[in-house]
Structures are given as structure tokens and as C-alpha cells.
Amino acid sequence: MKNDESKPIYTISDLAQAFDITTRTIRFYESEGLLQPQRAGQKRLYGHGDFVKLKLIVRGKRLGFSLAESKELIEMYDPQHNNQDQYQKVLEKVQESRTRLEQQKRDIETMMRELDAHEARVRHAMESLS
Amino acid sequence: MKNDESKPIYTISDLAQAFDITTRTIRFYESEGLLQPQRAGQKRLYGHGDFVKLKLIVRGKRLGFSLAESKELIEMYDPQHNNQDQYQKVLEKVQESRTRLEQQKRDIETMMRELDAHEARVRHAMESLS
DNA sequence: TCTCAAGTTGACGTTTACGTCAACGTCATA
DNA sequence: TATGACGTTGACGTAAACGTCAACTTGAGA
Fold this sequence. Notes:
- Two copies of one chain form a homodimer.
- In chain A, 65% of the residues lie in helices and 5% in strands.
- Chain A is mainly α.
- The first copy, chain A, folds into two domains: 58 residues, Orthogonal Bundle (Multidrug-efflux Transporter Regulator, Chain: A, Domain 2), CATH 1.10.1660.10; 49 residues.
- The model of chain A has no long low-confidence stretch (mean pLDDT 93).
- In chain A, a hairpin with a 2-residue loop joins strand 1 and strand 2.
- Chains A and B meet through helix 3 and helix 5 of A and helix 3 and helix 5 of B.
- Chain A binds a DNA duplex through helix 2.
């Protein structure tokens, strides 16, 4: 019975500053269906839910997710959009995401090891001409 | 004194199959300066070095690296391209890469926790109407 | 010798994720 | 009242990362 989306209100430039993106980008995300802010006249007003969605989007970008993928995640988390007969599909999507993230984790560990090895090589080469 | 780039020879379609990409993509990478295969007449011939570079590129793509970034990594690993007075820069790039990967690792862990939490919510909701 | 699979080089098209610019509305305040 | 600062809606431009297509060559096998 809780009416979320109430308290903290942000302007578009608040969010732009908070996430270090442009207002143009935020409007673009809206046009792509990733955000649906309130309006006060024609001005957009963003609430906590929008803040959370944006956080998910920018984090997704750091991990190479497309906007379409982030949109899917947002919808997956959205309690409106997933009614009873979709629970199973949600669980499958959760599992897909996990699989992908695990692959990325392995990739990161491999790259880290290669970076360590390369740093060692370079340091060794530097020493051998001091 | 070791002459690398000798033994295993691949055709362009060998590599396309091995990495599940198209030959068009491989030629595109070459045109962007990421690969420089040998030629037999006008046919391209790829060696072990090219294989390794491609592996780095596709892994990079899974982590959201641009081709320009993968190219930088390839050049960083290339012993030709980094002579004495560039050692310091190489070490800085290694450190940059590490920083980025560590951020991604944190992002992954956060997302994993959120996925776990969401799965729990969904499962609970499913039970409460069995 | 024919042919067929595999490879090659342009040239052009496409999708994604925004940037840029113009033209306009709307407040708060000097 | 006018002058910014901030916001809005199109319309168009752009860079990256390929895909698609056409027109051609080349080598191995029937």
C-alpha cells in the first residue's frame, strides 16, 4: 500500500550532474522508453525510481550493456510489468544475466593476470638496462 | 632470437569459425589496424600472433571495450611498439586498465547481489500463491 | 576445361547512442 | 520589463562497428 515515487524530486539537470551525462542523453533515454518522468507543465520531474533506473543504466554501460538490454533489466525489476504468469520468465532472465556476468568475471580475471604478467616483463626489461 | 609468427597458419574462415565472427569482421579489423596478416598472393594468412590478438579483441568486446581500446591494448603488449623510453607509459596504461577492470568487478558484484535479491523476491511471491 | 568454394576489393547501407542546432516557452530577479 | 538560466521539441548530423551486395580472382577437384 506504499506510494513510492513520492519524496525526492530531481530536475533533469540534477540527474545529469549526478550521473555525469547530458540532459540530451536523459531525454533520449526517455524517448527510448527507459524512463517515464512526471511532468509539471512541460517540465520533467524525476523521482527516486528514475534515479534508480538511471543508476542501473550507467552501470550497465560500464559493463557494455546496450540500452535495449538495460531496458529489459529495468522491466524485469519492475513489479508492474511482471505478473504471475511471467514469474518463470523473470527467473530465466535472472539466470541469463548471471551467466553473462560470470563470463565477464572470468574475462576480467584473465585480463588481470595478463596485465600482471606484462607489468612484470616490462619491469624486468627496465631493470636490465639500469 | 625466436622467430614467432611461424607455425600455425589459419585462413580467414578458420578464424571466423574459431571466434564465431564473420570474415567481413576480420577484414574490418585489419582495415582498422588491429591485424596485419601475411599474404600469399592476395589471400590472407594468419599466424599464432593474429589468433592471440583476435582472442584479446573478442574478450574485450564481451567487456565492452571499443576496438580503439583493444587496439591500444594490443600495441601495449606488442614488444616492437614499446621501446625503452615508453616503458613508463606502458606501466601507466596497465594501471589504467586495472582500474577499469576493478570498477567492472565491483559493478558485477553489485548486480549479482541485486539479481539474488530479486530472485528471492520473485520466488517468495510465487510461493505465496501456491 | 569447367565449375565451384573460398577469397578479394570497393561502395553503400544500417543500427546504436548520442551531439548539435534552431526556435521557442517560463520563471526568478535586477 | 527585460534578461538570463533552465527547459522543451523537432530535425539533422555523426562515430563506431559492422552487414550487404556486386564484381572479380584463384585454386582444387570432377
